[in-house]
Known about the structure:
By secondary structure, chain C is of the alpha/beta class.
Amino acid sequence: xxxxxxxxxxxxxxxxxxxxxxxxxxxxxxxxxxxxxxxxxxxxxxxxxxxxxxxxxxxxxxxxxxxxxxxxxxxxxxxxxxxxxxxxxxxxxxxxxxxxxxxxxxxxxxxxxxxxxxxxxxxxxxxxxxxxxxxxxxxxxxxxxxxxxxxxxxxxxxxxxxxxxxxxxxxxxxxxxxxxxxxxxxxxxxxxxxxxxxxxxxxxxxxxxxxxxxxxxxxxxxxxxxxxxxxxxxxxxxxxxxxxxxxxxxxxxxxxxxxxxxxxxxxxxxxxxxxxxxxxxxxxxxxxxxxxxxxxxxxxxxxxxxxxxxxxxxxxxxxxxxxxxxxxxxxxxxxxxxxxxxxxxxxxxxxxxxxxxxxxxxxxxxxxxxxxxxxxxxxxxxxxxxxxxxxxxxxxxxxxxxxxxxxxxxxxxxxxxxxxxxxxxxxxxxxxxxxxxxxxxxxxxxxxxxxxxxxxxxxxxxxxxxxxxxxxxxxxxxxxxxxxxxxxxxxxxxxxxxxxxxxxxxxxxxxxxxxxxxxxxxxxxxxx
Amino acid sequence: xxxxxxxxxxxxxxxxxxxxxxxxxxxxxxxxxxxxxxxxxxxxxxxxxxxxxxxxxxxxxxxxxxxxxxxxxxxxxxxxxxxxxxxxxxxxxxxxxxxxxxxxxxxxxxxxxxxxxxxxxxxxxxxxxxxxxxxxxxxxxxxxxxxxxxxxxxxxxxxxxxxxxxxxxxxxxxxxxxxxxxxxxxxxxxxxxxxxxxxxxxxxxxxxxxxxxxxxxxxxxxxxxxxxxxxxxxxxxxxxxxxxxxxxxxxxxxxxxxxxxxxxxxxxxxxxxxxxxxxxxxxxxxxxxxxxxxxxxxxxxxxxxxxxxxxxxxxxxxxxxxxxxxxxxxxxxxx
Amino acid sequence: xxxxxxxxxxxxxxxxxxxxxxxxxxxxxxxxxxxxxxxxxxxxxxxxxxxxxxxxxxxxxxxxxxxxxxxxxxxxxxxxxxxxxxxxxxxxxxxxxxxxxxxxxxxxxxxxxxxxxxxxxxxxxxxxxxxxxxxxxxxxxxxxxxxxxxxxxxxxxxxxxxxxxxxxxxxxxxxxxxxxxxxxxxxxxxxxxxxxxxxxxxxxxxxxxxxxxxxxxxxxxxxxxxxxxxxxxxxxxxxxxxxxxxxxxxxxxxxxxxxxxxxxxxxxxxxxxxxxxxxxxxxxxxxxxxxxxxxxxxxxxxxxxxxxxxxxxxxxxxx
Amino acid sequence: xxxxxxxxxxxxxxxxxxxxxxxxxxxxxxxxxxxxxxxxxxxxxxxxxxxxxxxxxxxxxxxxxxxxxxxxxxxxxxxxxxxxxxxxxxxxxxxxxxxxxxxxxxxxxxxxxxxxxxxxxxxxxxxxxxxxxxxxxxxxxxxxxxxxxxxxxxxxxxxxxxxxxxxxxxxxxxxxxxxxxxxxxxxxxxxxxxxxxxxxxxxxxxxxxxxxxxxxxxxxxxxxxxxxxxxxxxxxxxxxxxxxxxxxxxxxxxxxxxxxxxxxxxxxxxxxxxxxxxxxxxxxxxxxxxxxxxxxxxxxxxxxxxxxxxxxxxxxxxxxxxxxxxxxxx
Lengths: 528, 335, 319, 330
Ligand SMILES: Nc1ncnc2c1ncn2[C@@H]1O[C@H](COP(=O)(O)OP(=O)(O)OP(=O)(O)O)[C@@H](O)[C@H]1O
Ligand SMILES: Nc1ncnc2c1ncn2[C@@H]1O[C@H](COP(=O)(O)OP(=O)(O)OP(=O)(O)O)[C@@H](O)[C@H]1O
Ligand SMILES: [Mg+2]
Ligand SMILES: [Mg+2]
């Protein structure tokens, strides 16, 4: 495979070229003699497993890291960046994988930080111009929020949109997007495709990193694949099949993404009735049974996370009721939820899921410290053994469980979070976007795990914005829009159009009626 | 197709132990500094290098050192408690007043501890329940309140006249070793185990790095916060007992400024105010470094301003040494 | 005893805190007195005025095996355990200026008779107020033992002569904690709250200067008078401009000097600290130990000295 | 749409504090009618102006996630050195003395700035160390002496007692500092970037903001303001002592946090700062006015501060909840 180096060297119109780049972190060879070229006006996909070195590669182009060996050529001239600013000056802009925003500042300031608009003579910050310009950029991206909003109050997806606006604002010639669609729904991704194509038409070149095959298929002209820090190949997108691409990335074949399993659905474990949290969601009702996978979908900001966090005790509900195994409960805090058998894989794994500076093992056992201690006294041997077992089971890629989570790639970090949930005995598991930013191989692994869990009799609530995932994994689908449930469907007879319609219609009640008319089974009633 | 160079990595569950990481620790630097302090002191004063210096003089600076342990926990949590000096004053005053009002001394001591616990718990409850209030402002205001209460109770009076045995806390010895030193060692062991060997300690470190993730993981973060602040109050009361015993009486303005001295020792001990980082050995060494330094320079009759300057320099220079070590070891990653 | 290898006896003086010119002068007088007799002085002061810090210093002096310790106490009782330990090691312990309790000292070197100070200050206020009006006291901290004793005597003076002081009202005792900013706020509080205020008595060096400052700033010279105990250098401005017609203080150099001789006499065994004994103190002449109000004994330096516009200029550069 | 609402609630951050101050002022006025007299207001403002000036500097430091514990010592040192200088050279123009004091503060601030920005020393350690060093140096340069009123030329003392446009100079200086700070923080790129550095230091580095230079700048400004305050302090009290302003840093930090500045960085506004400072000014000024026992003063101050922050927190909670309710009904 590795000899399949296609288009190399000085193709006319190549505006960025990297040659023989190597980058070594203590203990890891993140990049090993890779090369890459980008043509004028091209969208170039970059793919690879978690930890393949994609983000590191990007940081080298943007001047955040200096390569250990190798050279960067822009417009035929060799360059060396001492800081990110120098790269910016040469027209390189990046949207980083982990959103890097200023939560306390306004959206407009976030967009223009570092290249603020100032008035001509007094050099004071020109607020009016900045807000005007920012609003224009946001409108261009079809964002329905104001440039005056505080960044920290926005959801992750909206922050992502601001990041894109930020890259646009610098008038860059080379725009790099590191997994921009990870936090976006299908609908929003389509918007992003449109914007990206607009950019290309204007002559901008784009490097587009994604774990979603459809992103690359839909957008890119060429695709480069990295594996374990090495360059595997570069192909025109039309000339490579999906299967071959997967093989290039993973190094082996993945037979089926969504193995259909026949799981016996058992007793009802959770019943949510008319749950309302003022200002966030209203009258949410659904049920969940043993071995069932219930997908919760909708557009970003629909309130899915809020519902699940309320069920997990992060916030309190204002009215409605929750029954776990038929008993009505109140849920004070996550500890309480865990005791009731409800576990949660949170949406933001870095902030909510992991203690980043800690070792893998300590992270895995954090939810079950009690189980590994007698009268507060930790039994570290038993703890390490258990952590090791879980890490092995989920195939976390690291040399030992004493590796810091900080140094893991996104997908491997996600596996650690999954391992955390598995360290406790639970009945209900909430998975909030479990495959966000995870490579195909790991995705398949996680789908496998989800299947296993269902088989073992867990009731699973899966929040997902990816249509194939929703349709391929779940038994039933609940669609939300603006804090209300707009549809409940049996997956067997649901279609993509139905779901999209329910998640986007203007009036929620109208939609509910509409969808109810189309569907035969009523989701909440089907359990009895 | 399968790449020969990527065998399936089996993740290990055994820790690699290396001499290099063992000696690359902050505590070794502190040991060096401590030896340096001893050497300089020996040079400065002929009285310094004696067995009694190492066994008896710790009693002169150990009183506030009892707060170092819980303060270390507070700082690992990423917080700071500025009210401890006032808590010492309040619990000491309560003890003295209660005793002079007729309570038997053992009961007065229990009361002292109880007051400390209550004062600490009040801090803890406020900080845990009112998340939007900064711990700095909470403990600054309780700093005023606790000492204020001490003033209200005792006004311009001093209170004392304790039974003779009470002075044994501060002045007594156990087989030739001052009782205070023994108590300090016992506390060091207890807190060391608590911090490094229990699930409670584990949770403290976790919360210091990422309290949100700990909450999502089912750690009872509020309870840990309250417990740690309560421990801080309790140990402030222990300090109050030793201090009062050494002074034979007490008044509302004792232990002024103890909080900053304690924080300085904790921080010198390698505990980061960003939270999550620090081991028990560091602050213990720091207590003896600062204590012996002050004591030795006093023996040489150096004036207080010089001592101030030297302690300030020590704080900065030793931390600079740590920084230089880090820049040698790794370049800081961005993003 | 009290000797290092070279055999010179060493005598220690411990003041309240460092960076206080009044204390520096006392230490200077003590050092002069000790050197004059051919011994070696050790001068110490903690950076903060607390008993805890003084205990540490005394421990260090005990280790050094000094011959005597003279201390200006930050606390009346709290130094007793450590000073008792010093005495058990054969070190002679005296207090000067601000006393420690009788159990922990041999004798106390008192700058001036507390009763005299208290009564004199009230008489001065009576004089300045012209016999009638409100007076207020601005003290140091609420637990300063010296100040409290003087204030006690002021109240006694008022009570002893109800007829004379019929129109003189002591309206409030405020505490400036010997901090400039707090003393100023407290003074302004007094001015705002008592429109009838005539005299502010401040028996503390920081307080009296702060009061002088406020009166000068507000243009109240001639309407409100300040008196009390202050350093001539600090007060020179306000005595010259009339904000403070006169005030009192003793000579801190002499306090230190006298202490030096008392200390050496105690080490020699010439005095044991009992009332009735006497000793000679170099240029100051001979002094007798007398019984003190607190149950111990003391040596009185003499009457406080009065500073007024006529003599302030010769003293302002001295201390 | 929602954007407008959000910014509206965020402007109300200090509303609770404002209400509290009004209520407190009213209560004190009931006890002593002298409180709201012009002369008392003027003296309140005069005495609070130094705290206010320092709070501005401290806000900048706190915005970058730092803290400065050394300012009490800097005040003492700059005040002492300046006082010694004017005592030695009485002919020296007062403004030159001010410049000298500020310059001394700037140098101290720069040392801290280098330690924090260049060598990554934690601010709390760097400033705790400098607090001791500078305080020690103050005693050393003064030799334990004070500089007294009679040694200072009148022109120097007039710095704090004189008037400009009929207003006490201290108040004038404080107003100027606030105006400059308002402009600096809201309308210059550097000011906004200070917020950015505190809000997310890593992001700042990626977007090419000179993080280290800004951190250095912030400590330098703090040092300069502390040095300036040292001169004003000495001029105001006409005396320079070694133990000037011991522990003052805690009051300044408390005033900042009371005014809504977060020690976690990135959050804080000049308007809030003003309220926090004024509350502290009232506490210092009003307690001597109402007849409370001196032994109760400290306790009352502590309770007032605590109640003030809790009131503010409650008001914020309520406004946020009602904003949510409004959003829900939309
Ligand atoms: N600052 C760093 N220090 C040490 N190792 C690092 C650092 N940054 C990345 N690495 C390591 O370099 C390798 C490549 O990481 P990188 O983030 O580039 O992967 P990626 O391809 O972007 O993965 P993902 O798809 O999960 O984002 C990983 O093994 C990672 O652990
Ligand atoms: N109408 C609204 N106006 C302003 N903010 C809103 C509104 N609705 C939701 N939000 C906020 O937007 C954020 C997104 O909500 P939430 O995370 O529950 O949605 P979600 O469906 O889980 O979306 P995501 O896919 O981003 O997880 C939340 O912080 C919520 O407070
Ligand atoms: Mg990546
Ligand atoms: Mg979500």
